[in-house]
Design a protein that fits this description.
The structure is a single chain. The protein has about 2000 residues and is α+β, with helices and mostly antiparallel strands. Among the domains are: about 200 residues, Immunoglobulin-like (Sandwich); about 300 residues, Roll (Lipovitellin-phosvitin complex, beta-sheet shell regions), CATH 2.30.230.10; about 160 residues, Alpha Horseshoe (Leucine-rich Repeat Variant); about 60 residues, no CATH class; about 240 residues, Single Sheet (Lipovitellin-phosvitin complex, beta-sheet shell regions), CATH 2.20.90; about 180 residues, no CATH class; about 100 residues, no CATH class. About 25% of the residues lie in helices and about 35% in strands. The strands form 8 sheets. It has a 24-stranded antiparallel beta sheet that branches. Strands 9, 10, 11, 12, 13, 14, 15, 16, 17, 19, 20, 21, 22 and 23 form a 14-stranded antiparallel beta sheet that branches. Strands 5-4-7-8-1-2-3-6 form an 8-stranded antiparallel beta sheet. A hairpin with a 4-residue loop joins strand 24 and strand 25. The longest helix has 20 residues. The protein is globular. The relative contact order is 0.06. Keywords: Disulfide bond, Glycoprotein, Signal, Storage protein.
């Protein structure tokens, strides 16, 4: 700034020199403080001498937009409200001027920044010198409300113009005098100054063009740095190599000389790693440099010529000079001279004409940068006497130096060239005669773009996840690299100055198109300056041609914005209705609209055409949509409004409307977004289309200004949005995520938005965030009408990701339904009706009333998701409360990811509280692991697995740590290291079925820089088998990008009930009678009544689904059974599909941007590179469906046409600007996947027969089913042409060879009658490319679609329907079951000897009625075959056939049929597979395959350790396969597998040590079911050795090839473990044997493969621990195994519960309830009593009663005695359904097994009872065996869900049956139990469920946590404090803090606010809170019970006094 000002002061010096007055020495500086109503500011005035003008600059705050007059008044005092300032100042001395002396000028406040006005004026009519008669020192400076009219001012006419601010001007001291170099004045400066000054005085412009609203400027100094942004660390520039003594400019550019150079500049782009084809442009001319004096030179580029090229360039540009000559646009401006001012060789300012286009301004500044040279004054270049000194001749230093690529640290490397080098390169010195045998030097300048003061980069990224910072201009890991190097050759002349002979600069930008390692697109800019002559002239010829009206540029950095071009790269933020593009080549709006209309017309024509659905790849529709949005992106609001109004249709899902909405959102400009916003508010965009548009808000916004955020905040609060549930939730999610990216996360914001050039957009303390959005989201969460909405808004709060949310989230962490003032007010209004109710009852009434009020409020809502609830809903649903609290904890996820300390402080107490709910503890633990806790925490948690009572918690910890050790993720190495350090501290555990797990899998390839991380988190369900919380995510790493590709969570509440509501409860499913009394016995009801069992799992079922795609697209859904029924009713039944009369048309088109990146990076030539990357998916679906469901016959029929299209495209472009041709030379890479499959379909089904028939007929003569292509290309695009690059005539594909190779394969015609054509075309290196990722199978699949090279490749799969014989594909599926052995027709012959097509798939399938026909005979035959060796079998079968229907009836159909049948009993499993292919066109192609499986899996034994160890039970299976022409007489394969115990491979001593040291100790205490014993038995029971023998009679070539490929794949994955022997091996012929041994303690496996002529061995293969789960066992499976039942052991006087809790219990002659489903879902109970020291067990299943007398080895079933032998006895119900099987085990236990109907198993002998319950009953059981929820603590719970002592458990569950039974329970124990239960019930009745007042305030050491670490101040003048009142001798504190004006501030506006108060007695705690409330907000009170409500006036805005 100062340099700019000094230049004008120079111009005034000439005028001052002519004055007859002798100037007084100066300078002078004065200050004035301006004050007014809401107006404040300061002005500084400077005057260099008494004859110099006065410069005025400063900042005023509070003025309204527009112009205001600035005057000097005569008064020397101000008075009150500026009433003593007097009239306008008129000096005594007359002064001839057009205007009054007191008129300083008009100042202007711009609309974009209404609160700040930058002042920059000059006045030559006033003075700061006391001796001057025009001195204004001590006078009043005033600001008028209106601007001054020049004519009025000249006539001194005083019209009414109110004064709005004033101040007195006082003198200030100046430390350094200002010196003026008068000799630097150039011709025409006086005229230029007058013109500039007049414009400034009129308020039309400021001295610096326009002051930037964010960056401003340092007063009188140079343009400020644009890197002073939050989160940016700037390195130190000063060190020992800093340049200290720069040589004067005259040492390089001597005044009086004229230097002429041949200039040539080329800018181009290409992919040099593939081909030499490049696209670009060039400028040539003669560069003339005329130094005027020692610091000023005039520069001009004359005789210019331009070229443009798109061709191969094999040689250097300077030699080839490619391209065709073109006319240079703006050539007259380009050749106009400009002035450069140097300081010691460095360019200080550049003066360029105002009228010159912006691209020429940048180009000329680039030329100025080329000729600046900061040479070390003490180097050998000038110290000729010392040029033999090595370090003088070879110098390295750095200096800050400007260029268009940035004002950066520049390294100079100076070296003297040997004479031999100079002689060897004669062209090195174009004018050698000027060197006069002096040394020649090479000077290399290299700009350090990582160390800049100004960096001119415009960037935008739609996705977060870039791990490098764009302020590092030199590069971003492997993604991008930018270098700017200049080489200068010169010598020292006889006059002692350095003559520049040659300058060559190379600017190179390298970009990896897809970020990972492939070939790179390259941008190259080369400039040559070759000396023609350096001649003395004595004067400047060019100075007279310099423009008289110039801008002075104090920085050489590239400019994007014409309004701010003197500020270098800084740009103004766009308004809501205007755009501000960084592209300097603009297109007229009419051309843009014309192009947009053309593109839209083509797009609509494409998607409406039949050809599009046959071959979408040829239409380039997705490219056209992308170009449409680029055309619309440059239009302002009014232009867009006119365009949209022209094309909009009054049809919701019209093609035009869908495309236009997607294109508008995709533009991301403020006008486009505002237009979509208005259309939604006006009802033109409605329903799901509006929701989809809003969900795309986050990835499309380019400039998130405060005004834009405020407008969307108003949108969120609008009535339209509030009345639509999904729209409101989606808007809240999108807006909160946008605020996080733009305002909160500085790293994301810097990489995603153009903050470098536009400044900060917003921050967390802004009112829109702190005072509007966050409180609104918190309020919506508080008043939400249901839990789904509450969780959605908690998720939105979590999106904010700032500590400001903590006080709002915390109440929901401690309570799922926090108290509020709304509730207190409702109590007051309804006090009369509530007076007799308890607090709990009052609370229930409030919740009911709140839901009713909310439903009334939203009764007009037309949403698919409806929350009608049953009247019996339990408002104390603890499962729901846990979900809400967990979701509130997860709202802190972003804080945890950013490692905020507050996360650990808040969540550690929750996790370590063992009384807390399991789901809540796990939620806290999940985030604690993420938040980078200290190593001590990891150790503490790992050790806790030894004593943690909750197995779910222990297993979660174990899987978390173990998976991070097993999957070492290089992207998060620190976490893996900490896990490795503590894994040895954990208790050894097995990967089991505990619903709680946290599993991470990761992989990374250093070679390609590709990687992935998957994470799966499960929480156990509350009283439910289904996890209450499931979370999965997939993140991918591609180079520097680490992006969360997708994540979803499903929170479920009583999900089993969800199924029951849809299909019926167990026992009643698919039955007409839904009455539960029909399946429950009176005895079960009697147990329930006698024990007063309080029901479990009483809440209503719901699912809460959260989807997040790319961290941008978010949706939240709540689903319950009513939702499903409503959707079916609305979408199907009401649409006419009830009785086959429905009609539905679908016209859906969705363009989804996956990634949108844009960057503008200037080149050294002043012509910027533009990098764009756009990845998208286009989905189109057109369909017409007819038909429906016949409810009377339970059948359905649907038919119609279906035309789906999916096009996925990844496009990248690297463009260079050539504004002199108005075009963009471009290099691009397009990767595309396109798929289409249009056809007509028919679906028929019949539930009674179990058959479904489908028919599919493909449409189109020639259909391209799939296309994949990678196409690199170059092109030249005119700025007015928005045609996709692939369709431009200038586009040329980049290929190393002229004609890429093409392969064509035709197949399918012979066997399928369908003519498929596979065509592959491309370069050989691309066709045979290796996989881009091959480290593991998951990564290989995940990155399979990514190419490893950018070389041209394209393959397509066509279906030629016209030449195909097959017309359609018809399939039939038939499902059947059988559970008895009764058959009407006996089986004749072997089943596999029969032909499927002769038996079942004959001509009858051609019948239209086949779907309704029952295949009774075939079912009888296949089930008889399976049931032959089974006892009491159950069987299932699936038949499938596919028929290829020919076009002509003369051609017989091709068919393939299959039949699968499976049967089982207790021990045996049998299966059969039959496959037959019949090709009646080619009879010899008929083929059959049959397989028969026979497996013997003996039952697991019970826990008797001594017998178990000796037992050698095996598991055997045999598979017999026959195939070929016949299943019985052709090729055969037999596979026999045996699982055994390998005692010799596992040391028995280790097993015995376990027994001796651990288990035996526990057994002596009666704890045979302890964890130690279970571990020992489990280890000794694993059948760890498997032997598989494969015998075959013939191996066909196809099978042999397949086995070789499989073998190679195994070798690839398991190569490190492999060894083999292929020499002199002679094993059994036609036999392959595979042996494997698993080592459970080591977690490894050995595999041996013996083939006839080779052996292969794999040793030490690492096996995931979960593999143990699938290994067979030879004993009863313990509770800690995946999907296995829990085990409860009842001894003589001991109980070991399902969850492992051990306690003593006495058993008498009365039944004790061992276990029962207390939720009532399954109707069963298990009872036990003792008679004569013998156990008697009763099992109740539905209405069946089974009594077991193990001592007598007999069983009574419904009073009928049966004897128990080795044979099993089946218990069935009235419908002949199997309920249980009774049998005697090998170890003399009697077993009652109900594996299907009730999933319970009971085994007993005379001394003990073992109950095995399926995990399906998790949390629903009650009785002595506990609840089976994984938590031992909850096992001591009575029937009424009250915690009771363990010695009273047998008292609580004793029944008074059978009649006359004798009990051993004392009356004292009964009385004690009654007392405990009564106290428990009383406490429960008084406790208000879900309110945080049931827990105390945070402990004292935590009370300062939240407030001390929470930033919530919206401004520096506002603080948040609580209110306090005294009521009834209690201190009552407001439960929320409210704004309060800080000291020194006052309230500008206030609002009335209702506050709820929580009252505390006057004690130490309330005294402490009273003391601290003045210094901090009491955030720990949020959510506390509201005891009273008061209304207060609180400020909304505070301003300083």
């Amino acid at each position: 700034m100062r340099l700019h000002t000094v230049f004008l002061v120079f111009a005034l010096g000439c005028v001052a020199a002519r004055s007859p007055h002798k100037p007084t020495e100066g300078p002078r500086r004065a200050l004035v403080t301006m004050e007014g109503m809401d107006i404040s500011g300061k002005l500084m005035m400077e005057q260099a001498s008494i004859s110099s003008p006065v410069k005025i600059r400063g900042v005023i705050y509070g003025l309204e937009p527009g112009r205001h007059g600035l005057h000097v008044h005569a008064g020397t005092t101000l008075g009150d409200q500026c009433d003593s300032v007097g009239g306008q100042f008129v000096p005594a001395e007359k002064y001839e001027s057009e205007r009054s002396v007191g008129y300083l000028g008009n100042i202007k406040t711009y609309t974009g920044v209404p609160s700040r006005t930058d002042v920059s004026l000059i006045s030559s009519l006033v003075s700061l010198f006391e001796e001057s008669p025009r001195s204004i020192l001590g006078r009043a400076i005033v600001i008028h409300q209106l601007p001054d009219d020049r004519a009025r001012a000249s006539k001194n006419v005083e019209l009414e113009n109110r004064l709005i601010a004033c101040g007195l001007l006082t003198l200030s001291q100046i430390e350094e005098p200002i010196t003026i170099d008068r000799e630097s004045i150039t011709y025409g400066a006086e005229k230029a100054f007058k013109k500039i000054e007049q414009g400034i005085l009129n308020g039309e412009q400021s001295w610096e063009n326009v002051r930037h609203p964010h960056y401003g400027a340092v007063e009188g100094q140079k343009v400020p740095s644009n890197l002073n942004l939050e989160g940016v660390e700037r390195p130190t520039n000063v060190d020992s190599l800093t340049l200290e003594t720069a040589a004067p400019t005259r040492k390089v550019w001597m005044a009086g000389y004229t230097y002429e150079y041949d200039y040539a500049g080329w800018t181009s782009t290409g992919i040099m790693g593939i081909s030499t084809k490049v696209s670009g442009g060039s400028i040539k001319g003669r560069l003339t440099i005329e130094p005027v004096d020692e610091s000023t030179a005039v520069v001009a580029l004359l005789a210019t010529k331009g070229k443009q090229f798109n061709e191969d360039v094999m040689e250097k540009y300077s030699e080839v000079d490619p391209g065709q000559e073109v006319r240079i646009i703006d050539q007259e401006h380009l050749e106009k001279p400009f002035q450069v001012k140097f300081v010691s060789g460095k360019v200080e300012t550049v003066a360029i004409g105002k009228e010159e286009p912006l691209w020429i301004v940048n180009f000329k500044r680039a030329l100025a940068a080329q000729i600046q040279l900061q040479l070390d004054g003490v180097s050998g270049v000038f110290q000729q006497a010392e040029y033999d000194n090595y370090y003088a001749e070879n110098t390295v230093y750095h200096a800050m130096e400007g260029s268009v690529t940035g004002e950066c640290q520049t390294w100079y490397h100076i070296s003297r060239l040997p004479v031999e080098v100079v002689e060897a390169e004669p062209k090195l010195l174009p004018a050698p005669e000027l060197c006069q045998n002096f040394p020649v030097y090479e000077i290399v300048k290299n700009r350090d773009l990582d160390n800049c003061r100004i960096l001119p980069i415009f960037n935008y990224n739609s996705n977060q996840g870039l791990r490098c910072n764009l302020v590092n201009g030199a590069g971003c890991e492997n993604k991008i690299s930018h270098s700017d190097t200049v080489r200068i050759i010169g010598c020292t002349s006889n006059e002692g100055h350095f003559i520049v002979q040659r300058i060559k600069s190379i600017d190179k930008l390298i970009v990896k198109p897809f970020s990972y390692e492939t070939e790179a697109t390259e941008g190259l800019t080369v400039q040559h300056l070759t000396l023609r002559s350096a001649t003395p002239t004595g004067y400047s010829k060019l100075v007279s041609r310099i423009s008289s009206d110039v801008h002075i540029y104090q920085t050489l950095a590239y400019s994007y914005d014409d309004d701010y071009k003197t500020h270098g790269p800084l740009m103004g933020k766009p308004t809501l209705r205007n755009v501000n593009s960084p592209m300097i080549m603009e297109v007229e709006p009419e051309i843009l609209k014309k192009e947009a209309l053309r593109l839209l017309s083509e797009i609509i024509s494409d998607v409406e055409s039949e050809a599009y659905y046959v071959d979408p790849a040829t239409k380039y529709t997705s490219d056209k949509i992308n170009m449409l949005r680029r055309a619309l992106a440059s239009l302002d609001y009014n232009e867009l409004m006119a365009f949209v109004a022209q094309v909009w249709e009054n049809k919701e899902w019209s093609t035009s409307n869908q495309i236009v909405v997607d294109a508008l959102m995709l533009t991301g400009t403020n006008p486009s977004l505002m237009l979509v916003r208005e259309y939604i508010l006006q009802g033109k965009i409605v329903g799901e289309q509006a929701v989809q548009a809003i969900s795309a808000l986050v990835p499309t916004v380019e400039t998130p200004t405060k005004e834009l955020l405020a407008s969307w905040m108003e949108f969120l609060k609008s009535e339209v949005v509030q009345s639509q549930r999904q729209l409101k939730i989606t808007t809240a999610l999108s807006l909160s995520r946008l605020v996080y990216q733009a305002c909160v996360n500085t790293t994301h914001g810097l990489n995603m938005f153009p903050k470098l050039v536009m400044g900060e957009f917003c921050n967390p303390s802004d009112s829109i965030v702190a005072s509007q959005l966050v409180p609104y989201l918190a309020e919506q969460a508080k008043i939400a009408k249901d839990a789904g909405e509450r969780m959605a808004f908690l998720t939105a709060l979590g999106n904010i990701g700032h500590e400001i949310i903590v006080p709002y989230v915390k109440p929901f962490i401690t309570s799922c339904e926090p108290s509020s003032h709304y509730e207190s007010e409702w109590y007051e209004r309804n006090q009369r009706d509530l007076v007799s109710l308890s607090k709990k009852e009052m609370r229930k009434k409030w919740l009911e009333a709140k839901k009713t009020l909310n439903l009334k409020k939203y009764e007009q809502e037309q949403e698919d998701i409806v929350f009608a609830r049953s009247e019996s809903e339990d408002f104390e649903d603890e499962a729901l409360c846990n979900l809400v609290r967990s979701k509130a904890i997860f709202a802190l996820s972003n804080l945890a990811v950013e490692k905020k300390e507050i996360v650990g402080t808040l969540l550690m107490p929750i996790f370590f509280n063992k009384a807390e709910e399991t789901e809540v503890r796990l939620a806290a633990l999940t985030l604690l692991f993420v938040s980078n806790p200290p190593q001590a925490f990891w150790s503490r948690v790992a050790l806790s697995t030894w004593y943690e009572p909750n197995d779910q918690i222990s297993h979660f910890i174990y899987t978390t740590i173990a998976s991070r050790v097993a999957n070492k993720n290089p992207l998060n190495r620190e976490e893996a290291v900490r896990a490795e350090a503590v894994i040895a501290l954990m208790k050894p555990m097995f990967w089991t079925s505990h619903a709680a797990l946290n599993y991470q899998k990761a992989g990374y390839s250093e070679k390609t820089r590709l990687g992935y991380v998957t994470e799966t988190v499960n929480f156990p369900g509350f009283e439910s088998f289904v996890p209450s919380h499931h979370y999965s995510s997939l993140s991918v790493a591609m180079g520097p990008w680490f992006t969360k590709l997708m994540e979803f969570s499903i929170d479920s509440k009583h999900a089993e009930k969800f199924i029951d509501r849809l299909v019926g409860k167990p026992g009643l499913r698919f039955k007409s009678n839904k009455d539960e009394s029909s399946i429950i016995s009176p005895e079960l009801e009697k147990i329930h009544e006698e024990l007063k069992i309080e029901a479990r799992a009483t809440g209503q079922p719901e699912l809460y689904i959260y989807l997040n795609f790319l961290d941008n697209y978010q949706r939240f859904f709540t689903i319950n059974p009513n939702t499903i029924f409503r959707m079916i009713e609305k979408q199907i039944l009401q649409s006419g599909f009830r009785e086959n009369a429905g009609k539905l048309e679908i016209n859906f088109h969705k363009y989804l941007p996956l990634l949108d990146s844009f960057a503008r990076i200037p080149s050294a030539m002043g012509l910027a590179y533009t990098w764009t990357s756009h990845h998208s998916v286009l989905v189109s679906l057109k369909s017409k469906i007819e038909g429906g469901f016949a409810m009377s016959s339970w059948s359905a029929k649907l038919e119609g046409a279906l035309k789906p299209v999916v096009v996925s495209k990844m496009s990248t472009r690297l463009m260079v600007d050539t504004p002199f041709t108005r075009a963009f030379p471009t290099t691009g890479v397009d990767m595309e996947w396109a798929a289409a499959l249009p056809g007509r379909f028919l679906v028929e089904g019949d539930i009674k027969t179990g058959k479904i028939q489908t028919t599919w007929e493909t449409l189109g003569d020639k259909l391209r089913v799939v296309k994949h292509s990678v196409v690199p290309f170059t092109t030249i695009r005119k700025i007015t042409d928005f045609t996709p690059a692939a369709l431009l005539s200038e586009t040329k594909r980049i290929s190393y060879v002229e004609e890429p190779k093409e392969n064509k394969v035709i197949f399918g015609e012979k066997h399928l009658g369908m003519n498929f054509v596979f065509v592959e075309r491309g370069e050989r290196l691309a066709v045979v490319q290796p996989s881009v990722y091959s480290k593991d199978w998951f990564g290989t699949l995940a990155f399979a679609a990514m190419p490893s090279t950018l070389r041209q490749r394209e393959w397509s799969l066509y279906l030629d329907n016209a030449s195909s014989e097959t017309k359609a594909i018809k399939t039939i599926i038939s499902i059947s079951t059988k559970s008895d052995s009764k058959f009407e027709t006996p089986l004749t012959g072997h089943l596999h000897a029969k032909s499927l097509f002769d038996t079942i798939y004959g001509e009858q399938i051609m019948s239209q009625e086949y779907v309704k026909q029952q295949d009774s005979q075939w079912e009888s035959q296949k089930f008889q075959h399976i049931f032959q060796t089974l006892t009491n079998p159950t069987g299932y079968s699936l038949d499938f056939t596919a028929e290829l229907v020919p076009k002509s009836s003369s051609i017989k159909a091709r068919r393939i049929g299959s039949s699968v049948v499976y049967g089982m009993d207790g021990k045996s499993h049998r299966g059969s597979l039959m496959v037959e292919r019949r090709d009646e066109v080619e009879g010899q192609n008929n083929f059959v395959l049959c397989a028969e499986v026979d497996a013997q899996f003996p039952d697991n034994l019970v826990f008797k350790r001594k017998e178990l160890i000796k037992d050698e039970t095996e598991r055997r299976s045999t598979i017999k396969i026959g195939f070929g022409k016949s299943c019985t007489d052709d090729r055969k394969i037999t596979v026999a597998t045996t699982w055994t115990r390998s005692e010799e491979d596992i040391s028995p001593s280790l097993r015995n040590q376990w027994e001796k040291t651990q288990c035996q100790k526990q057994e002596t205490l009666g704890r045979g079911m302890s964890d130690e014993c279970i571990a020992a038995r489990r280890l000794s029971s694993i059948l760890n050795k498997a032997v598989m023998t494969i015998n075959y009679n013939e191996m066909p070539a196809a099978v042999r090839n397949a086995t070789i490929k499989a073998s190679n794949l195994v070798r690839h994955w398991l190569g490190p473990y492999m060894s083999d022997n292929q020499v002199e091996v002679m094993n059994t012929q036609n036999q392959i044997t595979v042996e494997s041994v698993y080592y459970p303690l080591a977690g490894s496996m050995d595999v041996k493969v013996f083939k006839p002529y080779s052996n292969v061995f794999f040793r030490g293969i690492e096996i995931h621990p979960i593999a143990e789960v699938i290994l067979p066992k030879r004993m009863a499976v313990p509770r800690s195994v995946l999907a296995a039942p829990g085990v409860c052991l009842i001894g003589s006087e001991t109980v070991t519960t399902f969850d492992g809790l051990f306690y003593n219990a006495s058993f008498s002659g009365c039944d004790q309830l061992l276990t029962k489903d207390c939720s009532g879902r399954y109707k069963f109970a298990v009872l036990s009593r003792v008679e004569g020291d013998k156990k008697i067990v009763t099992v109740l299943l539905n209405k069946e009663k089974i009594e077991i007398f193990p001592a007598q080895q007999k069983v009574n079933v419904n009073g009928m005695e049966i004897s128990v032998t080795g044979e099993s006895y089946t218990v069935k119900n009235a419908e002949n359904e199997v309920l249980a099987v009774i049998k005697k085990t090998a170890d003399n236990f009697i077993e009652v097994d109900s594996p299907i109907s009730h999933m319970i198993r009971v085994l007993t002998d005379a001394k003990e009872v073992v109950v095995l319950a399926s995990p399906i009953h998790r949390g629903r059981l009650c009785g002595l065996c506990g609840s089976q929820n994984g938590d031992k603590v909850t096992d001591l719970t009575g029937p009424r869900q009250c915690a009771i002592p363990r010695d009273l458990m047998d008292v609580a569950y004793e029944l008074r049956q059978p009649a006359g039974c004798k009990s051993d329970i004392s009356s004292r124990d009964v009385a004690e139990l009654r007392r405990i239960q009564e106290e428990c019930l009383k406490e429960k009745s008084e406790t208000i469920f879900g309110i945080s007042d049931v827990t105390p305030l945070l402990p004292k050491f935590q009370q300062n946590i939240l407030s001390s670490q929470t930033i919530r101040r919206p401004s520096q003048w506002t603080v948040y404090r609580n209110k306090m009142v005294v009521q009834d001798n209690k201190r009552c504190f407001s439960t929320e803090s409210v704004p309060k004006c800080a000291e020194g501030a006052r309230a500008q506006e206030t609002v009335e606010k209702k506050l709820g108060f929580h009252c505390l007695p006057k004690n130490i705690l309330s005294e402490k809170l009273n003391e601290e409330m003045s210094s901090r907000p009491l955030d720990e009170l949020m959510g506390k019970q509201v005891d009273m409500v008061r209304v207060y006036s609180v400020p909304t805005t505070c301003l300083p006094f």
